[in-house]
Amino acid sequence: MNTTRMYEFAVIGGGMAGASIAAELALYARVLLLEGEDAPGYHATGRSAAFWEECYGGPGVVPLTRASGAYLGELGFLTPRGALYIGRGEDREAMEAFRASYQGTGVQIERLAPAALGERVPHIRPEWSEALHQPACADIDVAGLHQHYLAMARRNCAEVVTRARVTGLAREGGAWTITSERGETWRAMTIVNAAGAWADGIARLAGVQPVGIAPFRRTVAVLRVDPPAPADLPLVLDINCGFYFKPDAGRLWLSPHDEIPSEPCDAAPEELDVAIAIDRFQQVTDWRIAAVERRWAGLRSFAPDRMPVYGFDPQIEGFFWFAGQGGFGIQTAPAAARLGAQLLLEMAPDAMTAGIDAAAYAPARFAAALQSA
Length: 373
Fold this sequence. Notes:
The protein is an alpha+beta fold. The chain is 25% helix and 29% strand. The protein is built from nine helices and 20 strands. It has helices at residues 16-26, 62-74, 92-101, 114-120, 142-155, 199-205, 271-284, 333-345, 367-372; strands at residues 6-12, 31-34, 51-52, 78-80, 83-87, 110-112, 130-134, 138-140, 159-161, 166-172, 175-180, 185-193, 214-226, 235-238, 244-248, 251-255, 260-261, 288-302, 309-312, 319-323. Strands 5, 6, 7, 13, 14, 15, 16, 17 and 18 form a nine-stranded mixed sheet that branches. It is globular.
């Protein structure tokens, strides 16, 4: 159904990024949320490894993660888990460098003795003797958080439209006309580009120069192991980014921590990546793998500097970037959405965002590189 109703903000993308910022904006403005799939959250949001880990994404992302923690905890979306970054004897220098990189960020990281590592990770091979403990890590209820934001948006009269794949964006008279592949049209004063892996493509439709947000495939396999994984097993990550695993109902979620360049698509796991994950896992533990019960893949999208992109495009009026959130978009959603809404509405920071430097994430940081490209 065609409509010419005017919205203050049209958010493109109904994953966690789009749902959260639409919810924050709907408290103050008329908002349209457009999702290309049959239901919001089909891509990266629905394929998350579901943990909140303060180190994930690097020191530059820590302010967003830590600022989100209280909101997530108070609303019951976090369950304590703890994380261990592990390595072998030759990795001691890398472990110390990792720990040092988070000094002054507020992240608590503790050295763990080899004996304590063996107690926390059963079946670990003895050569894996080095460990850093990050006690604040928690499981996150991704589906619950996503539905929380969608419900919040709808409760405040945001219009959520699915199967609305955007194929045209044209600005005229200070407003955008948005066209879908089914011929629907909408009007909005400002476009909020929360399209994840498709963010650069949406920019091109609007005549905006892309900032270089690139999607990368990540694989997860669910293993049935014997004996079953204990419920209190921490999230275990390789200090050299070769794997991570965590328990779920006696099973293990295992990833080879892969980053395979991809076109924006409905990502599917490759058998080779699953095999690599299992091989790495067997080098770390002597756990018996009874079966691979499930496998999936999702796209994690990064800007060239691997920091998120939040802010108005420096060249095209009325176009706001809210993308490039890699694998940390779920755990940073509350603070990122609040910050994005404050920038869009020209509101002052509040208690959640007061410690966040918005300029660190602004798309203007790419301006010089784009002009010389």
